[in-house]
Design a protein that fits this description.
alpha+beta; disordered C terminus; single chain; 12 strands; 387 residues
């Protein structure tokens, strides 16, 4: 059960939790998907060896983006596609955070304010990068939304990988310095201004929903005081890592793109009443144990289920979907090469699995021949929604 600890918690305690607490449709879908993943409840494939008759049953996975058991293949495919878009030069990992006072408001307006987090981060990076004092060009930007801290607390923030080179208005490639191009204080001030200006407009246009502990903010006087208090705070983005050399930035970001709030590897113990997991204490740098009830573990986990259809990974600058093909072609032509071609593009699933994980789904564990082939596909009930 080493890789099924989170699933076990949901299997044993989800229905008790659901009967006691309000959950959204997406949270319910995620929970049921995790419970059903690779159990046979979503159907299975039966493979039979044509040499010795050995039969092997493979239960279907749920493919929900919040399931701890379903991210490995998606992550590898994503990284393969992104490596082919890497340009020569330094890359930087920037993290944008907001004051914790905003957390209740963001949680009650997730789709709206998660989008605002993405927009304010990207506009900050693009506007400052285009300034001749810094890069003076448009860089390549990949952004990923995370909503959790190490203890599964609610902590929305944006991870950005930013290229240190870009195209200027004359379509010439401009390379930056090896250290980060934009001072952190300048980034923080610009991000704060863009986020709060847009947030204020959403308030004035009546788009915000206020949770019970924030209803006083519906009064304009209270809202203005709250907004002004946020302006007085220091908003401190930080540069988490700097990369030099082909592909390192994408390999690093791959740790973030398909990560969920907590992995099975961090679960230390699941007892009859509690869950214990590892967490890093950033103040001391040490690993600590956090123990919570099953009910609290499920509550913390579910608060990181994203709204339906929300795209947590987004692309800007040279990687904007509508212009990416054209702009990258210009960059690679200037650099005289493209460092990487997609490895898995056009491959069938069997070949991908072998290339990624050295898994040969046709190798019979009984007789050793490559004669194991799928003969049956069985569904028991409808597959769970993918979320």
């Amino acid at each position: 059960m080493a890789n099924l600890k989170i699933q076990q918690v949901f299997q044993d305690f989800w229905y008790i939790y659901r009967n006691k607490h309000y959950v959204t449709e997406e949270q319910s879908k995620a929970a049921v998907s995790i419970i059903s993943c690779k159990t046979g409840a979503l159907g299975c494939n039966v493979s039979v060896c044509e040499e010795c008759g050995y039969e092997e049953i493979r239960n279907n996975s749920c493919r929900n983006r919040h399931c701890p058991n379903c991210q490995a293949v998606l992550k590898e495919l994503w990284m393969d596609a992104r490596r082919s878009e890497v340009i020569d030069g330094a890359y930087f990992h920037v993290v944008f955070t907001v004051p914790s006072e905003l957390n209740p408001l963001i949680y009650s307006n997730q789709k709206l304010l998660y989008t605002l987090l993405h927009d304010a981060s990207s506009k900050t990076l693009l506007e400052l990068s285009s300034d001749s004092k810094y890069l003076g060009a448009v860089p390549a930007i990949i952004q990923v939304l995370h909503t959790w801290g190490q203890t599964l607390n609610y902590h929305p923030h944006i991870h950005c990988i930013v290229s240190g080179a870009g195209l200027n208005s004359q379509m010439k490639l401009v390379g930056g310095k090896e250290d980060f191009l934009i001072p952190v204080k300048v980034l923080g001030s610009k991000f704060k201004g863009k986020f709060l200006d847009s947030l204020d407009r959403l308030y004035k246009d009546g788009f915000l929903v206020f949770p019970k502990n924030c209803t006083s903010l519906e009064i304009p006087r209270e809202w203005n005081a709250f907004r002004d208090s946020l302006y007085r705070k220091d908003w401190c983005p930080y540069i988490k890592e700097t990369f030099n050399g082909f592909g390192n930035a994408i390999d690093y970001l791959g740790r973030y793109t398909h990560r969920i709030a907590i992995s099975n590897s961090r679960i230390v113990e699941v007892s009859d009443t509690q869950v214990t997991f590892n967490a890093r204490d950033y103040r001391t740098g040490k690993t600590i144990h956090v123990t919570v009830t099953h009910e609290e573990f499920i509550r913390r986990f579910l608060q990181h289920v994203l709204p339906k259809g929300f795209q947590k990974i987004r692309y800007y600058g040279l990687l904007t979907n509508s212009r990416k093909k054209k702009l990258l072609a210009i960059v690679f032509n200037i650099q005289k090469h493209r460092r990487y071609e997609p490895e898995y593009e056009g491959m069938d699933t069997e070949t991908k699995l072998f290339k990624m994980f050295h898994i040969d789904i046709h190798l019979c564990p009984c007789c050793g021949s490559r004669s194991l082939f799928s003969r049956y596909r069985t569904f028991v009930g409808a597959p769970a929604a993918t979320g």
